[in-house]
Amino acid sequence: MSVAIVFGTRPQIVKSAPIVYEALRCGLDLEVIHTGQHYDYLLSQVFIKEFGLPEPVVNLGVGSGSHAYQTGEIMLRLEKYLVGGRYALVLIPGDTNSALAGALTSVKLGIPVAHVEAGARCYDMSMAEEVNRRLIDHCSRLLFAPTLNCKRNLEKESVVGEIYLTGDTMYDVFLRFRDKAEKSDILERLNLVNGEYGLLTLHRAENVDDPVRLKSILEGVGRTNVEIVFPIHPRTANRIREFNISLEHGNVRVVDPVGYVDMLKLLKHAKLVLTDSGGLQKEAFWSKTPCVTLRDRTEWVETVEAGVNFLVGTDANRIIQAVRFIEDNYDLIRGRFCENPFGDGCAARRIVDIVMRFI
Ligand code: UD1
Fold it and tell me: Domain range spanning residue 89?
Protein backbone atom coordinates (compact mmCIF):
# COMPACT_ATOMS: atom_id res chain seq x y z
CA MET A 1 0.00 0.00 0.00
CA SER A 2 1.04 3.61 -0.54
CA VAL A 3 1.47 6.49 1.84
CA ALA A 4 0.20 9.97 0.92
CA ILE A 5 1.60 13.32 1.98
CA VAL A 6 -0.86 16.21 1.74
CA PHE A 7 0.26 19.82 1.42
CA GLY A 8 -1.04 23.03 -0.07
CA THR A 9 1.07 25.97 1.04
CA ARG A 10 4.60 27.30 0.77
CA PRO A 11 5.82 26.32 4.27
CA GLN A 12 4.32 22.85 3.97
CA ILE A 13 6.30 22.19 0.80
CA VAL A 14 9.49 23.14 2.70
CA LYS A 15 8.59 20.81 5.59
CA SER A 16 7.76 17.94 3.22
CA ALA A 17 10.79 18.09 0.91
CA PRO A 18 13.21 16.07 3.10
CA ILE A 19 10.55 13.43 3.71
CA VAL A 20 10.04 13.01 -0.03
CA TYR A 21 13.83 12.69 -0.56
CA GLU A 22 14.09 10.10 2.19
CA ALA A 23 11.09 8.15 0.89
CA LEU A 24 12.67 7.99 -2.56
CA ARG A 25 15.97 6.84 -1.03
CA CYS A 26 14.28 4.08 0.99
CA GLY A 27 11.82 2.92 -1.66
CA LEU A 28 8.76 4.03 0.30
CA ASP A 29 5.83 4.47 -2.08
CA LEU A 30 4.90 8.07 -1.18
CA GLU A 31 2.39 10.02 -3.24
CA VAL A 32 2.23 13.80 -3.03
CA ILE A 33 -1.21 15.44 -3.00
CA HIS A 34 -1.40 19.24 -3.44
CA THR A 35 -4.59 20.89 -2.23
CA GLY A 36 -4.06 24.02 -4.34
CA GLN A 37 -4.45 26.35 -1.33
CA HIS A 38 -1.44 28.25 -2.70
CA TYR A 39 -1.59 28.55 -6.47
CA ASP A 40 0.66 31.49 -7.42
CA TYR A 41 3.91 30.32 -8.98
CA LEU A 42 5.97 32.20 -6.38
CA LEU A 43 4.15 30.57 -3.45
CA SER A 44 4.07 27.00 -4.72
CA GLN A 45 5.56 25.77 -7.99
CA VAL A 46 8.83 27.63 -7.47
CA PHE A 47 9.47 25.51 -4.36
CA ILE A 48 8.55 22.22 -6.04
CA LYS A 49 11.05 23.10 -8.79
CA GLU A 50 13.80 24.34 -6.48
CA PHE A 51 13.57 21.22 -4.33
CA GLY A 52 13.33 18.96 -7.39
CA LEU A 53 10.23 17.26 -5.99
CA PRO A 54 8.10 14.95 -8.14
CA GLU A 55 4.97 16.62 -9.46
CA PRO A 56 1.99 15.92 -7.16
CA VAL A 57 -0.25 13.04 -8.30
CA VAL A 58 -3.09 15.52 -8.11
CA ASN A 59 -3.65 19.22 -7.47
CA LEU A 60 -7.11 19.70 -5.95
CA GLY A 61 -7.18 23.33 -7.08
CA VAL A 62 -9.04 24.65 -4.06
CA GLY A 63 -7.52 28.15 -4.00
CA SER A 64 -8.49 30.98 -1.68
CA GLY A 65 -11.63 31.53 0.38
CA SER A 66 -12.92 31.64 3.92
CA HIS A 67 -11.63 29.10 6.43
CA ALA A 68 -14.85 27.11 6.20
CA TYR A 69 -14.77 27.13 2.40
CA GLN A 70 -11.14 26.13 2.20
CA THR A 71 -11.34 23.40 4.83
CA GLY A 72 -14.68 22.00 3.63
CA GLU A 73 -13.82 22.11 -0.05
CA ILE A 74 -10.45 20.42 0.46
CA MET A 75 -12.19 17.68 2.45
CA LEU A 76 -14.76 17.06 -0.29
CA ARG A 77 -12.18 16.99 -3.07
CA LEU A 78 -9.60 15.02 -1.11
CA GLU A 79 -12.05 12.34 -0.05
CA LYS A 80 -12.37 11.22 -3.67
CA TYR A 81 -8.64 10.50 -3.78
CA LEU A 82 -8.33 8.86 -0.42
CA VAL A 83 -11.25 6.40 -0.63
CA GLY A 84 -10.68 2.89 -1.88
CA GLY A 85 -8.13 1.55 0.59
CA ARG A 86 -5.10 2.66 -1.44
CA TYR A 87 -3.35 4.47 1.40
CA ALA A 88 -2.01 2.89 4.59
CA LEU A 89 -1.19 6.26 6.18
CA VAL A 90 -1.49 9.96 5.43
CA LEU A 91 1.33 12.31 6.39
CA ILE A 92 0.27 15.83 7.32
CA PRO A 93 2.95 18.52 7.66
CA GLY A 94 2.29 21.75 9.57
CA ASP A 95 -0.82 23.58 10.70
CA THR A 96 -2.55 25.21 7.74
CA ASN A 97 -6.14 24.75 6.61
CA SER A 98 -4.82 22.20 4.11
CA ALA A 99 -3.29 20.29 7.01
CA LEU A 100 -6.47 20.32 9.07
CA ALA A 101 -8.63 19.27 6.12
CA GLY A 102 -6.16 16.51 5.22
CA ALA A 103 -6.13 15.13 8.74
CA LEU A 104 -9.92 15.22 9.20
CA THR A 105 -10.64 13.63 5.83
CA SER A 106 -8.17 10.81 6.46
CA VAL A 107 -9.25 10.02 9.99
CA LYS A 108 -12.92 9.99 8.99
CA LEU A 109 -12.11 7.46 6.26
CA GLY A 110 -10.32 5.35 8.85
CA ILE A 111 -6.86 6.07 7.43
CA PRO A 112 -4.28 6.71 10.16
CA VAL A 113 -2.75 10.18 10.24
CA ALA A 114 0.88 11.06 10.98
CA HIS A 115 1.48 14.69 11.96
CA VAL A 116 4.82 16.26 11.06
CA GLU A 117 5.64 19.18 13.42
CA ALA A 118 3.34 17.90 16.15
CA GLY A 119 3.08 19.59 19.54
CA ALA A 120 3.90 23.18 18.55
CA ARG A 121 1.83 25.48 20.78
CA CYS A 122 1.66 29.25 21.19
CA TYR A 123 -1.45 29.14 23.44
CA ASP A 124 -3.28 31.75 21.37
CA MET A 125 -6.52 30.30 20.10
CA SER A 126 -7.21 33.43 18.04
CA MET A 127 -4.59 32.12 15.59
CA ALA A 128 -6.09 29.80 13.01
CA GLU A 129 -2.92 27.71 13.01
CA GLU A 130 -3.13 27.06 16.77
CA VAL A 131 -6.66 25.70 16.36
CA ASN A 132 -5.58 23.59 13.40
CA ARG A 133 -2.53 22.06 15.05
CA ARG A 134 -4.41 21.13 18.22
CA LEU A 135 -7.14 19.39 16.25
CA ILE A 136 -4.64 17.59 14.03
CA ASP A 137 -2.61 16.38 17.01
CA HIS A 138 -5.68 14.96 18.69
CA CYS A 139 -6.68 12.85 15.70
CA SER A 140 -3.18 11.64 14.76
CA ARG A 141 -1.93 8.10 15.25
CA LEU A 142 1.74 9.09 14.91
CA LEU A 143 3.00 12.43 16.21
CA PHE A 144 6.42 13.62 15.09
CA ALA A 145 7.56 16.30 17.53
CA PRO A 146 10.36 18.60 16.31
CA THR A 147 11.60 19.61 19.80
CA LEU A 148 11.54 18.34 23.36
CA ASN A 149 9.22 21.19 24.27
CA CYS A 150 6.74 20.08 21.58
CA LYS A 151 6.91 16.50 22.89
CA ARG A 152 6.15 17.73 26.41
CA ASN A 153 3.20 19.78 25.16
CA LEU A 154 1.72 16.63 23.64
CA GLU A 155 2.27 14.63 26.81
CA LYS A 156 0.53 17.33 28.86
CA GLU A 157 -2.50 17.12 26.56
CA SER A 158 -2.61 13.31 26.75
CA VAL A 159 -2.95 12.83 23.01
CA VAL A 160 -3.97 9.32 22.02
CA GLY A 161 -1.35 8.71 19.31
CA GLU A 162 2.27 7.63 19.69
CA ILE A 163 4.69 10.51 20.21
CA TYR A 164 8.18 10.48 18.67
CA LEU A 165 10.87 13.12 19.13
CA THR A 166 12.28 13.31 15.61
CA GLY A 167 13.77 16.79 15.18
CA ASP A 168 12.54 19.33 12.69
CA THR A 169 12.38 18.53 8.97
CA MET A 170 12.82 22.27 8.26
CA TYR A 171 16.28 21.98 9.76
CA ASP A 172 17.05 19.00 7.49
CA VAL A 173 16.21 21.02 4.41
CA PHE A 174 18.01 24.09 5.76
CA LEU A 175 21.25 22.08 6.07
CA ARG A 176 20.83 20.57 2.64
CA PHE A 177 20.48 23.94 0.89
CA ARG A 178 22.74 26.07 3.06
CA ASP A 179 25.79 25.87 0.79
CA LYS A 180 23.77 26.29 -2.37
CA ALA A 181 22.20 29.42 -0.86
CA GLU A 182 25.64 31.01 -0.53
CA LYS A 183 25.87 30.99 -4.33
CA SER A 184 22.61 32.93 -4.75
CA ASP A 185 23.13 36.39 -6.27
CA ILE A 186 20.05 37.90 -4.59
CA LEU A 187 22.09 40.52 -2.70
CA GLU A 188 23.55 41.82 -5.96
CA ARG A 189 20.17 41.68 -7.68
CA LEU A 190 18.57 43.73 -4.91
CA ASN A 191 21.64 45.89 -4.43
CA LEU A 192 21.95 45.01 -0.73
CA VAL A 193 25.08 45.29 1.38
CA ASN A 194 26.06 42.25 3.42
CA GLY A 195 25.09 42.71 7.10
CA GLU A 196 23.56 46.13 6.63
CA TYR A 197 19.91 45.48 5.86
CA GLY A 198 16.91 44.10 7.71
CA LEU A 199 14.57 41.47 6.28
CA LEU A 200 10.81 41.85 6.83
CA THR A 201 8.08 39.26 6.20
CA LEU A 202 4.49 39.73 7.20
CA HIS A 203 1.47 37.65 6.33
CA ARG A 204 -0.43 36.42 9.41
CA ALA A 205 -4.13 37.06 9.06
CA GLU A 206 -4.41 38.54 12.58
CA ASN A 207 -1.77 41.14 11.66
CA VAL A 208 -2.46 42.03 8.06
CA ASP A 209 -6.26 41.80 8.02
CA ASP A 210 -6.44 44.37 10.83
CA PRO A 211 -5.68 47.88 9.49
CA VAL A 212 -4.65 49.18 12.92
CA ARG A 213 -2.10 46.42 13.50
CA LEU A 214 -0.83 46.51 9.94
CA LYS A 215 -0.33 50.30 10.03
CA SER A 216 1.37 50.11 13.40
CA ILE A 217 3.85 47.44 12.23
CA LEU A 218 4.70 49.31 9.05
CA GLU A 219 5.07 52.56 10.98
CA GLY A 220 7.44 50.91 13.47
CA VAL A 221 9.52 49.25 10.77
CA GLY A 222 9.54 52.49 8.77
CA ARG A 223 10.82 54.52 11.71
CA THR A 224 13.89 52.34 12.28
CA ASN A 225 17.05 53.60 10.67
CA VAL A 226 17.73 50.26 8.99
CA GLU A 227 17.28 49.63 5.28
CA ILE A 228 14.54 47.01 5.08
CA VAL A 229 13.83 44.56 2.26
CA PHE A 230 10.26 43.25 2.28
CA PRO A 231 9.37 40.24 0.09
CA ILE A 232 5.62 40.64 0.17
CA HIS A 233 2.98 37.90 0.48
CA PRO A 234 0.05 38.51 -1.94
CA ARG A 235 -2.35 38.64 1.01
CA THR A 236 -0.38 41.52 2.55
CA ALA A 237 -0.04 43.34 -0.77
CA ASN A 238 -3.84 43.12 -1.20
CA ARG A 239 -4.51 44.46 2.29
CA ILE A 240 -2.07 47.37 1.93
CA ARG A 241 -3.91 48.34 -1.26
CA GLU A 242 -7.39 47.85 0.27
CA PHE A 243 -6.57 49.85 3.41
CA ASN A 244 -4.88 52.51 1.32
CA ILE A 245 -1.73 52.37 3.41
CA SER A 246 1.19 54.13 1.84
CA LEU A 247 4.71 52.88 2.41
CA GLU A 248 6.00 56.44 2.52
CA HIS A 249 8.96 55.49 4.70
CA GLY A 250 11.89 55.49 2.31
CA ASN A 251 13.76 52.71 4.12
CA VAL A 252 11.30 49.91 3.24
CA ARG A 253 11.71 48.26 -0.15
CA VAL A 254 8.91 45.94 -1.27
CA VAL A 255 9.94 43.08 -3.55
CA ASP A 256 8.17 39.99 -4.94
CA PRO A 257 8.12 36.83 -2.79
CA VAL A 258 11.45 35.01 -3.10
CA GLY A 259 12.25 31.31 -3.46
CA TYR A 260 13.81 29.14 -0.77
CA VAL A 261 17.48 29.47 -1.71
CA ASP A 262 17.28 33.25 -2.10
CA MET A 263 15.46 33.49 1.24
CA LEU A 264 18.23 31.55 3.01
CA LYS A 265 20.81 33.89 1.53
CA LEU A 266 18.81 36.98 2.57
CA LEU A 267 18.41 35.56 6.08
CA LYS A 268 22.07 34.71 6.55
CA HIS A 269 23.37 38.12 5.51
CA ALA A 270 20.73 40.31 7.13
CA LYS A 271 21.56 42.37 10.19
CA LEU A 272 18.22 41.30 11.63
CA VAL A 273 14.90 39.77 10.67
CA LEU A 274 11.43 41.12 11.44
CA THR A 275 8.69 38.57 10.92
CA ASP A 276 5.36 37.13 11.99
CA SER A 277 6.13 33.77 10.35
CA GLY A 278 6.73 30.66 12.45
CA GLY A 279 9.22 29.06 10.08
CA LEU A 280 11.31 32.18 9.63
CA GLN A 281 11.92 32.47 13.38
CA LYS A 282 13.60 29.07 13.22
CA GLU A 283 15.46 29.78 9.99
CA ALA A 284 16.76 33.04 11.48
CA PHE A 285 18.00 31.04 14.48
CA TRP A 286 19.84 28.55 12.28
CA SER A 287 21.29 31.45 10.25
CA LYS A 288 22.47 33.06 13.51
CA THR A 289 20.55 36.24 12.67
CA PRO A 290 18.72 38.08 15.48
CA CYS A 291 14.94 38.09 15.05
CA VAL A 292 12.14 40.48 16.04
CA THR A 293 8.85 38.59 16.09
CA LEU A 294 5.79 40.69 15.31
CA ARG A 295 3.43 38.60 17.41
CA ASP A 296 2.40 38.45 21.06
CA ARG A 297 3.17 34.75 21.37
CA THR A 298 5.26 32.17 19.60
CA GLU A 299 5.30 28.39 19.42
CA TRP A 300 9.13 28.49 19.06
CA VAL A 301 9.82 29.51 22.65
CA GLU A 302 13.29 27.95 22.47
CA THR A 303 14.50 30.85 20.31
CA VAL A 304 13.11 33.44 22.74
CA GLU A 305 14.63 31.67 25.75
CA ALA A 306 18.01 31.70 23.99
CA GLY A 307 17.79 35.52 23.91
CA VAL A 308 18.02 35.83 20.12
CA ASN A 309 14.35 36.23 19.24
CA PHE A 310 12.45 39.24 20.62
CA LEU A 311 8.67 39.00 20.86
CA VAL A 312 7.33 42.51 20.49
CA GLY A 313 3.80 42.26 19.10
CA THR A 314 2.68 45.00 16.75
CA ASP A 315 3.30 48.22 18.69
CA ALA A 316 5.43 50.62 16.64
CA ASN A 317 7.49 51.84 19.60
CA ARG A 318 8.28 48.33 20.79
CA ILE A 319 9.45 47.40 17.29
CA ILE A 320 11.75 50.43 17.17
CA GLN A 321 13.12 49.68 20.66
CA ALA A 322 13.85 46.05 19.77
CA VAL A 323 15.70 47.00 16.61
CA ARG A 324 17.74 49.55 18.55
CA PHE A 325 18.49 46.99 21.25
CA ILE A 326 19.77 44.51 18.67
CA GLU A 327 21.93 47.15 16.99
CA ASP A 328 23.39 48.30 20.33
CA ASN A 329 24.06 44.76 21.57
CA TYR A 330 24.83 43.02 18.34
CA ASP A 331 27.94 41.07 19.37
CA LEU A 332 26.38 40.03 22.67
CA ILE A 333 23.28 38.68 20.91
CA ARG A 334 25.29 36.94 18.19
CA GLY A 335 27.19 35.19 20.99
CA ARG A 336 23.95 33.80 22.42
CA PHE A 337 23.18 31.37 19.59
CA CYS A 338 23.31 28.13 21.50
CA GLU A 339 22.92 24.47 20.78
CA ASN A 340 20.20 23.80 18.26
CA PRO A 341 17.05 22.44 19.97
CA PHE A 342 15.54 21.45 16.60
CA GLY A 343 17.41 18.17 16.10
CA ASP A 344 20.41 16.99 14.15
CA GLY A 345 19.24 17.30 10.56
CA CYS A 346 18.06 13.66 10.39
CA ALA A 347 14.37 14.20 11.23
CA ALA A 348 13.10 12.93 7.88
CA ARG A 349 15.19 9.77 8.17
CA ARG A 350 13.59 8.99 11.55
CA ILE A 351 10.11 9.80 10.25
CA VAL A 352 10.40 7.56 7.20
CA ASP A 353 11.87 4.78 9.30
CA ILE A 354 8.92 4.92 11.72
CA VAL A 355 6.44 5.11 8.82
CA MET A 356 7.96 2.06 7.14
CA ARG A 357 7.70 0.05 10.33
CA PHE A 358 4.10 1.21 10.82
CA ILE A 359 2.63 0.30 7.42
C1 UD1 B 1 -1.52 30.23 4.78
C2 UD1 B 1 -1.62 29.52 6.13
C3 UD1 B 1 -0.54 30.00 7.07
C4 UD1 B 1 0.82 29.92 6.41
C5 UD1 B 1 0.78 30.67 5.10
C6 UD1 B 1 2.09 30.63 4.38
C7 UD1 B 1 -3.88 28.91 6.87
C8 UD1 B 1 -4.98 29.22 7.81
N9 UD1 B 1 -2.90 29.80 6.79
O10 UD1 B 1 -1.80 31.60 4.98
O11 UD1 B 1 -0.53 29.20 8.23
O12 UD1 B 1 1.77 30.47 7.27
O13 UD1 B 1 -0.22 30.07 4.28
O14 UD1 B 1 2.08 31.53 3.31
O15 UD1 B 1 -3.90 27.87 6.25
N16 UD1 B 1 -3.15 34.37 -2.20
C17 UD1 B 1 -2.64 34.62 -3.45
N18 UD1 B 1 -2.00 33.60 -4.10
C19 UD1 B 1 -1.86 32.35 -3.55
C20 UD1 B 1 -2.40 32.12 -2.29
C21 UD1 B 1 -3.02 33.13 -1.61
O22 UD1 B 1 -2.74 35.72 -3.98
O23 UD1 B 1 -1.24 31.49 -4.20
C24 UD1 B 1 -3.80 35.48 -1.47
C25 UD1 B 1 -5.30 35.52 -1.66
O26 UD1 B 1 -5.71 36.85 -1.61
C27 UD1 B 1 -5.79 34.82 -0.40
C28 UD1 B 1 -4.78 35.25 0.62
O29 UD1 B 1 -3.54 35.31 -0.09
O30 UD1 B 1 -7.08 35.17 -0.05
C31 UD1 B 1 -4.64 34.33 1.80
O32 UD1 B 1 -4.33 33.01 1.37
P33 UD1 B 1 -4.64 31.78 2.33
O34 UD1 B 1 -4.31 30.51 1.64
O35 UD1 B 1 -6.01 31.90 2.88
O36 UD1 B 1 -3.72 31.97 3.57
P37 UD1 B 1 -2.24 32.52 3.76
O38 UD1 B 1 -2.33 33.90 4.26
O39 UD1 B 1 -1.36 32.25 2.58
Answer: 2-168+343-358
